[in-house]
Predict the structure.
Amino acid sequence: MDTSVIEVQDLSKSYGPTRAVQNLTLAVNKGEFFGFLGPNGAGKTTTIKMLTGQVPPDSGEARVLGIDVTHHIEVKKAVGIVPEVVLLPSFLTVTEYLEFVCGVRHVDEGQAAFWLDFVELNESENVLCKDLSQGMKQKLSFAAAFIHKPSLVFLDEPFADVDPLMQKKLRTFLNEYVTEGGTVFLSTHILEMAEKLCSRIAVLSKGTVLKSGTLSELLREGPTLEDVFFTLVRTHG
Amino acid sequence: MADTLLSLNLKEEWRMLTSYFSSKNLFFAFPAVLVVIGVIMGWLLPLFREAFEMSELLVAFHVLMVVYGLFVGAFGFFADEVANTWFRDAHLLIHMYTILPISFRKLLTWFYIKDIVYYLFLTIVPLFLGLFLSFSVSLGVVARLFGSSLLSFLIGVSVSFLVSSLYVRSRLSLVGMLVVAAVMVGTGSVEDFPPLVSFVYGDWGAAFLSAGIFVALSILSLAITKPVYRARKKLFSRTNLFHRMDPVLAKEIIDVRRSGTWQIIATSYLFPLIFIYGIFYFSGRLFQFRIDIPLVFYAGFIGYLSTLVYSWLNNIDAPSSLSTFPITTSAVIKRKIMLFLLFSFTVAMVYLVVLGYILEALYLVPLSIVIMGSTSFYVAAVTAWLCGLYPNTRLFDGAVLARYLLLILPVLLVMSILSLMERSLWLLGISAVILVSAAFLYRRVGTKYEHVPLGSY
């Protein structure tokens, strides 16, 4: 029996006159690698921000790991988040940032050393976060998202600036994470990445889900995920 | 291309400035207030003329205009990549030289012209319009004074531009330039200042000379300005603060230390001292009383610096960098207030003890510390309660500003009067009331911001 770790019902959010997300309904099960695809401005980041307690929804309901998303601190305690725009505390060094995250999440500081090594930032451990390259910031953000061993992570374009070698390492890690029971909610523009990694996919446009299903279900509508995506967005978007 | 750059720069500035206000109409309240100040200046002129020589007033006014120009003219710093972080999330046209085939110098030139246009129409013109509307001074005098004041302002702007450009490009040349300037100022007389000469003698030659100085210094500044890239990353040894205290407080302490904000805060307590001295000097001249700064008055007054210091603490880093962690907005605000209290109290106490020693009023230091402590905590708590983590922008909102003034001004007035009257017992009593109010507001900060996600408002 599937257990939903994310349950969303009629979720909406507007920014002034712009309706970013409209009556969004979806469910993600435990142990899924869920792909959230859509063109720019489709509402992917706003959805992730609502589901992770970063932005309050205007209407609708959403529960993440059984927690109402309006209880934003409880949600943030439970999940890991890699945001699209990685903002790190400017004046902390790489190591200090990871120690800070350990402190905030009440995790043993040994985790900081492990993740520093895993994302290969040892040589930059004493560099301030503001002086890191975008790719380094993204790697550090990835480490911070997993440091407390969450059972569910939200990744918003996590590979955009990461080099191919590290991308491969992170992909392998994520596959192992899901195999061991973790759940990944991945928002990406890179369709090849979604095709390789995701077990189930939802295509979003103009704030509403156009289609969702397993990869094989979606591929019934076209030869490749790219074809399916283009058709859906052009027809309904 | 040139007119496009000017118009885009003007639009950019307009949109940025109006974004600080809850409505565009409120934006015009600022020049309107300056018109009123101009009218009041005109009406008070006869009173000032009784206490001061006309020449003294003219010198003071032109010096103030130069100082105003010096404050706004540090455009040379835009050549430093650090300036990219000044506007937080806003990215300006001036920084587009990094990705577009256009020189930094060209962008800076139009940015410079745009800023002068804005300062001229938003501040100087309204002030002189008010002066004219007071009908205390003839139109001819207002026009001449406007011209000479504008030239003084422009000279201040261009000197500041040159100094900041040299600071970024070559600090050795800056020292050289300052030595030459010191010699020139030391050997010259303030009465020879060209804009002043142009006003007093109606000398067109002096006016053209002033304009020439402004143009020459501006061109020189633009010529030597070149973007600076800090390729070398500064390394920092690991701190053990995270092992010893709450991680959010530790982060705040590190931010203040590494951003250099502590230096600004440490020197900031000098400004109210100079301001109070200026007020007392002019009041002394106007109403013929002895010029003396009571220690308790200064103690109460520096409490009002708290809004500024609290704003600086919030300008160091964007709160959204913590938005993915289980940290409440109220927790961050409370850590900032804690840090403010720890740091400001220490610095302010040093100032009070030194000033108490200079004024031979060491016996008043304990009372002054109580007054400083209570007003500082109260003002910081009011600012935090009303503005959260965005005091710089939220205070521009008319409704917030009105509530702020309503909560702050009566307290300032009462404390000032009582300290001038040296009513120690009353001061202690009021301090206790303020302290209780501050503690109440501190608790309210918790309830108001507990459920507000970081970076979402």
